[in-house]
């Protein structure tokens, strides 16, 4: 997959499009002349992104749905086809977070996270594969995380989901090697989104400690979503198999590659501090 993927005149579906990377990437794709099917459970945020994208002169449709609902995902291809007639780019961006040591978290929250971060990615991909393989050149873009390369303490469920997205995406890439369907895996680092503030936390946990932990994490989320979106868009256009977003993510990935077992001895203070 070395030929540049031309976005003008294509149709892309972006999940989690109401804010953060999803909204920024939607607008970055619109700037290239790419029509959009936007999906999110937040109707107000979704409408705001849709207005901004439409102002760039591309066709936009809004699809309000909960990605934890398998039936809603199954119905989505027909809705996208009815509005746009096809699909060339699927961006599985939506994700949620769950903080706390594994012994402290409720397993119902773990199931919620896995359903959105992993099962929805697989269900969306399975639902749209017929449209994508019929489109000629097409691209699947799955967002993992730098926590799909390293696994910090306190992020057992989140890392499990993002490592699984990585494994799923790499296997999918191998299955479609040599075909017009490309597959891109994205590992963002510290992007300034609302994921830390909206993360679920253990019931009965110390509220002050939880608040301090969220504040410490948000201080590390420094890259603007618009900058991350430009990097991801460039990766889509290049049909890159893997995109690591941010200097912090590149450093962490390098340390993990050099110290695949003992990386935590170097990273603990930087991540937990």
Q: In words, what does this structure look like?
A:
By secondary structure, this protein is an alpha/beta fold. The protein has a single domain, classed as Rossmann fold (3-Layer(aba) Sandwich). Strand 5, helix 5 and strand 6 form a beta-alpha-beta unit. Helix 1 runs parallel beside helix 2 and helix 3 runs parallel beside helix 4. The N and C termini lie far apart (40 Å).
Task: Record the SSE blueprint.
Layout: E1 11-15, H1 20-31, E2 35-40, H2 43-54, E3 60-64, H3 70-84, E4 89-92, H4 107-133, E5 138-143, H5 156-175, E6 181-188, H6 207-220, H7 225-237, E7 242-245, H8 247-258, H9 263-272
Parallel strand pairs: 1-2, 1-4, 2-3, 4-5, 5-6, 6-7
Distance between the termini: 40 Å
- CATH-level-4 superfamily name: NAD(P)-binding Rossmann-like Domain
Sequence of secondary-structure elements:
EHEHEHEHEHEHHEHH
Q: CATH topology, what is it called?
A: Rossmann fold
Query: Count of helical segments?
Result: 9
Strand order of the largest sheet: 3-2-1-4-5-6-7
Task: Give me the Rg, rounded.
Answer: 18 Å
Helical content stands at: 40-55%
Strand content: 5-15%
Could you tell me the number of beta strands? 7
Sheet having the most strands: 7 strands, parallel
Query: Helices and strands: which structural class?
Result: alpha/beta
Shape: globular
The CATH architecture can be given as 3-Layer(aba) Sandwich
CATH class: Alpha Beta
Q: What are the low-pLDDT stretches, counting only 5+ consecutive residues below 50? A: 206-218
Mean pLDDT figure: 89
Number of domains: 1
Protein name: Acetoin dehydrogenase
Family: Belongs to the short-chain dehydrogenases/reductases (SDR) family.
Domain Ketoreductase: 10-194
GO cellular component, one term: membrane
